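Continuing the batch. This is chain 6 of the set; chains 1 through 5 are on the previous pages. Same settings as before, nothing changed between runs. Recording input and output for traceability.
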Amino acid sequence: MKSGAKGTGSAGSKGKGGKITKKFIINASQPASDKIFDVSAFEKFLNDKIKVDNRTGNLGDTVQISQVGEGKIEVVAHTQFSGRYLKYLTKKFLKKQQLRDWLRVVSTSQGVYELRFFNVVNDEADDDDE
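Output for chain 6:
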């Protein structure tokens, strides 16, 4: 009896050929319509920063990044790819653009991330006194 025989077989492969396709959408339409978020610059940032096989600029055919509609970016990966990694890169871009104080990344459903403004509660009673 072998105790180290765990993980043998095709446990990690999906389907017949083992081809994995994951599709992620980042919805930045709300801040893009307010003209504070540059979607094309974010698309270029993702192209530059996403790592495939531990190397940046190595996307090839395995990861496609495209702009879909107004303020939406679609990332299609044909390899193992994490949505958390995409969220991490989005937060990194927001920090670089100094937008991290106003925007947050929220997962609305599986594979869909949305950039939303923080809910700020204004004290209108203070404004009336002035």
